[in-house]
Write a structure and sequence with these properties.
Layout (H helix, E strand, L loop, with lengths): L3 H16 L3 H19 L6 H9 L1 H12 L5 H14 L3 H9 L3 H12 L8 H11 L11 H14 L4 H15 L3 H8 L4 H10 L6 H15 L3 H6 L2 H16 L8 H15 L3 H8 L4 H9 L7 H14 L3 H13 L4 H11 L7 H17 L4 H24 L4 H22 L5 H7 L2 H20 L5 H25 L4 H11 L5 H10 L2 H15 L6 H22 L3 H11 L7 H13 L6 H141 L1 H66 L4 H64 L7 H10 L1
Helix pairs in contact: 1-2, 1-3, 1-4, 2-5, 4-5, 4-7, 5-8, 7-8, 7-9, 8-10, 9-10, 10-13, 13-16, 15-16, 16-19, 18-20, 19-22, 20-21, 21-22, 21-23, 22-24, 23-24, 24-27, 26-27, 27-28, 27-29, 27-30, 29-30, 29-31, 29-34, 31-34, 32-34, 34-35, 34-36, 36-37
Protein name: Protein CIP2A isoform X1
InterPro entries: CIP2A (IPR042510), CIP2A_N (IPR048701)
Organism: Oopsacas minuta
């Protein structure tokens, strides 16, 4: 069901009831009120069309607020009116309209004073709840002390024994008005019932209602945090209990507690107010359970609704004002693998529709921007973020194209795009994340965004609307979006060639010139600095139209001067029109002045309409004084900005004149640089030749080291062979001793010779077996030699690999030119090691000579053994001649084989 016909019918019935308040019109009006209430009870939000109907038609808002102020209205009618107003003020624009033009707070304050003890007593609770919703995070300014009357009524309700609902609503009003409002805090401290209020607030800490407890703590923190009472309440022991209470209530499910919305909202406000002092910030840093509660809060994003998610994000943003808790939050959100869903949940809140999740979406973007300003995070996180950012940018552009005719939706999407682009520029500041951002966000998307924003800014600058403030805000947001888009291209130009070309083409675009001049002359300091940075890059481009830019800047500054001069004498005219607009009784100024003189003289005025006129007149005078002061300040700032723009124009013209001389200087500088480059190339050639010589020396040293290593291996092999030969000689000596004993026995007795011959035969057989074993061992040794050859080949492969590594090291040596002195020291050390190795080689040669001498001695010993063996053969031959040749074998072959073995 569309809400437009409902509000149109409400406007017509209200107009009829105002003209003639009979029973029929009253019934029709009550019927329309019931229809509106049933529509609002469904939880549907106002559409843009119905919102424009309500704001443009003053009959609805002014008529509803006048019904509250009028006497002798039916109580049911006023109660329904208050319920409809509580539904309408959920929209911030309607709330501002009601507070500024319709003076809703003034009329609610009067209703509170006049309705106590009357038939309107039942509507008091709804009035207090309406004031609670109005005063939450909205600076309310009212004439004639209406705020003081509301505070007095609320304090009286808190101090007196009333029901829990009245106490909660009154405590919420006091907490909302005293939150960061010094004048309200001073008024509450100066009340005669201030001590009674403090006693009640301290006693409320033992109350069973959580809403009463949290609201009392928030009021005490606003009033007495930095004084003695606050030091006693929020000391070292109690502050940890306060943190525990806040975090537990924030993490608790809303279904398990009463007034959950007020409790969680008050917990977040209390935390944000107490953490502004350094004493409590240090206590929070030292709080041990903070990581646990932060993890539990971050896990709530997946199950929280829009209101709770916005409160949780606001709490995390207040924590980000401190350094150590912010680093802890960065580790939880960006680095921990278990809580990676937290990051994805925050990204999901960024992608929610703006109509129902505006606050949560904007706060999620701000939180990520704060976290990425501190730490860029790992590459796994940015891989999740970059597609989401590019997707959100494309969605935002499409939504802005579809909703650009509707002012409310268009402005929301425009602010979301600005925040997303600021987040992208923050991520692009880190060099580690430039590559994934440039890969995920296509340059075609940024070019489409730039062209679309350029067309929207052109259309906005061509419109002349009656509401100049909204038009100026839209222009400034469009300029900001344009500048941030170009800035992102400037950051991505080094990592992507297409972005470099797109950025250069944008800087040379003549359509960008008027918006750069507008940003320099009409914007704030941040946008002015950003536009000057872009102008600095644009001046380096050869095709930049610098003369056109100077002319455009001069004309824009001249127009700005004329606008400032025309705005000063029109202050009185504006006040007259404002006075006529807020004067529904159409009285002359003479009657107003007469009533003022009567009030000053002390005469009583019976007509209440005159008091309303006087109140409005005084309020308008106060607002006009503030506006005059603001206009004077604006004149000073605009004059300074115009002077700066004129200076910039003069500087640009001077740069045009100096460009030719600079070109000549640059050409001379180029020739000098070329000569220097030739000299440097010669030096580089000399250095390369020196490095080649050093590399050749290194190669020769490496070859000598390899040869020495081979000599060591040969010496080890020779030593092993000598040891084997010494063992063989020992065996031969033992055999000779045995044979000598056998020869002596042969000389003594022939019979013993036969025995010895038999033993010799057996020995001969054993020797044959040993020869077979030796042949087998020879084959084994051959296999071992083959394995060693394979091992040598593997070593050669390793040597080739090491040679490749050495070549790589040599390339590194070629690159490191600055460490030549250290290389020279290393070469000197290498020469010393070479000398030591030569000494070692000489020692090895001397050892080799000694080994050769020992071998000669052993050979001489072998010759002696051969001579002895020959003597034994002669003895055997003599024995053979004596005994005969019949049963005696030929031992000469055996002895010759023994000698050879």
């Amino acid at each position: 069901m569309d809400s437009c016909p409902v509000f149109q019918g409400l406007a017509t019935s209200l107009a009829q009831y105002k003209r003639e308040s009979n029973k029929d019109n009253q019934k029709e009006f009550e019927h329309q009120l019931d229809l509106t209430l049933t529509h609002s009870s469904n939880g549907r939000q106002l559409s843009a069309k119905s919102k424009s109907i309500i704001l443009l038609n003053d009959v609805i808002l002014c008529g509803l607020t006048n019904l509250i102020d009028k006497r002798f209205q039916p109580s049911t009618l006023i109660h329904k009116t208050l319920m409809i107003l509580s539904y309408l003020i959920l929209d911030r624009d309607i709330l501002k309209h009601l507070c500024t033009r319709s003076l809703l707070v003034v009329k609610l304050a009067r209703f509170l004073e006049s309705s106590t003890g009357t038939v309107y007593q039942s509507s008091l609770l709804q009035t207090l709840k309406l004031l609670q919703m109005i005063t939450y995070k909205l600076t309310v300014t009212c004439p004639n002390g209406c705020i003081e009357d509301i505070l007095d009524f609320s304090v009286h309700t808190v101090v007196s024994e009333c029901s829990a609902e009245y106490r909660i609503a009154s405590l919420a009003i006091i907490s909302n008005l005293s939150y960061t409002n010094v004048s309200v805090q001073a008024y509450l401290k100066g009340l005669s019932s201030a001590s009674a209020l403090n006693r009640v607030l301290i006693a409320n800490m033992k109350d069973e209602s959580l809403a009463v407890l949290i609201l009392s703590l928030s009021i005490l923190s606003s009033l007495w945090l930095e004084e003695d009472l606050g030091m006693k309440i929020f000391n070292g022991k109690n502050i940890e209990q306060t943190f525990q209470l806040i975090f537990k209530l924030t993490c608790q499910s809303p279904d398990k507690m009463e007034d959950s919305r007020i409790v969680i909202r008050s917990c977040v406000d209390l935390f944000c107010s107490i953490t502004q002092t350094i004493r409590i910030q240090t206590a929070l840093v030292e709080y041990e359970l903070l990581p646990k509660y932060l993890q539990s809060i971050c896990k709530l994003f997946s199950i929280a609704d829009a209101n709770r998610a916005s409160l949780l994000l606001e709490l995390l943003l207040s924590i980000c004002k401190m350094e150590r808790p912010t680093e802890l939050l960065v580790r939880i959100v960006l680095y921990e693998t278990d809580s990676s869903s937290v990051f994805l949940d925050i990204i999901a809140w960024i992608g929610q529709p703006l109509q129902s999740n505006q606050t949560a979406t904007f706060l999620a973007i701000d939180l990520l921007r704060v976290l990425f300003e501190i730490d860029p995070g790992p590459s796994s996180v940015i891989s999740h973020l970059s597609p989401a950012l590019s997707k959100q940018l494309s969605i935002g552009v499409n939504c802005l194209r579809a909703e650009q005719n509707q002012e409310t939706q268009g402005s929301l999407y425009l602010t979301k795009l600005i925040k997303l682009l600021h987040l992208t520029s923050t991520v692009c500041k880190h060099s580690l994340q430039l590559q994934p951002i440039s890969e995920s966000i296509s340059d075609q998307l940024l070019l489409e965004l730039y062209t679309f924003i350029l067309s929207t800014t052109q259309s906005l600058f061509s419109i002349h609307n009656e509401r100049e403030n909204e038009l100026i805000n839209r222009k400034s947001s469009a300029i900001q979006l344009l500048l941030v888009t170009v800035k992102i291209l400037a950051t991505l130009k080094d990592s992507k060639r297409m972005c470099q070309e797109a950025y250069n083409s944008i800087l040379e675009d003549p359509r960008l010139l008027p918006y750069l001049s507008y940003a320099i002359t009409h914007s704030d300091r941040r946008e002015t600095l950003l536009s000057l940075e872009l102008l600095r890059d644009a001046l380096q481009r050869p095709n930049f139209h610098i003369s056109n830019f100077g002319n455009i800047l001069a004309t824009s500054s001249h127009n700005q001067k004329e606008l400032i001069q025309q705005s000063t004498p029109q202050v009185n005219d504006v006040t007259d029109t404002a006075r006529k607009r807020h004067n529904p009784l159409k009285l002359d100024s003479n009657s107003v002045e007469d009533s003022i003189e009567r009030m000053r003289s002390g005469l009583s005025i019976a007509d209440m309409r005159n008091t309303d006129i006087i109140d409005i007149y005084e309020y308008k005078l106060s607002t006009l004084e503030t506006k005059v002061n603001q206009i004077e300040a604006l004149q000073e700032t605009k004059s300074l900005s115009l002077q700066q723009s004129e200076r910039l124009g003069a500087q640009l013209r001077c740069k045009l004149a100096d460009s030719e001389s600079e070109c000549q200087n640059l050409s001379n500088a180029l020739t000098q640089i070329q000569n220097k480059l030739l000299k440097e190339e010669r030096k580089v050639k000399c250095l390369t030749e020196r490095e080649n010589e050093l590399s050749f020396d290194n190669d020769s040293l490496k070859r000598e080291i390899i040869s020495l290593q081979e000599l060591e291996v040969k010496c080890i092999q020779i030593a092993a062979e000598v040891a084997d030969k010494s063992e063989v000689c020992d065996r031969l000596k033992a055999n000779l001793k045995r044979e000598c004993s056998v020869a002596r026995n042969l000389q003594e007795d022939n019979e013993s010779l036969e025995v010895t011959i038999q033993t010799l035969k057996s020995q001969q057989e054993r020797l044959f077996e040993q020869n077979k074993d030796t042949e087998i061992e020879k084959q084994k040794y051959k296999q071992i030699l083959l394995e060693r050859d394979n091992y040598v080949k593997e070593l050669e492969v390793n040597v080739t690999q090491q040679s490749t590594k050495i070549s790589q090291i040599e390339r590194q040596l070629e690159e490191i030119i600055a460490e030549r002195d250290s290389l020279a020291k290393q070469i000197a050390n290498a020469q010393k090691s070479k000398e030591s190795l030569m000494e070692r080689a000489n020692e090895l040669q001397s050892e080799k000579i000694k080994l050769n001498s020992e071998l000669q001695i052993e050979r001489e010993g072998q010759k002696l053994t051969k001579a002895k063996l020959e003597k034994m053969q002669q003895l055997a031959a003599m024995i053979h001649d004596l005994s005969g040749t019949s049963g005696i074998p030929n031992t000469s072959n055996f002895l010759s084989k023994a000698t050879t073995n």
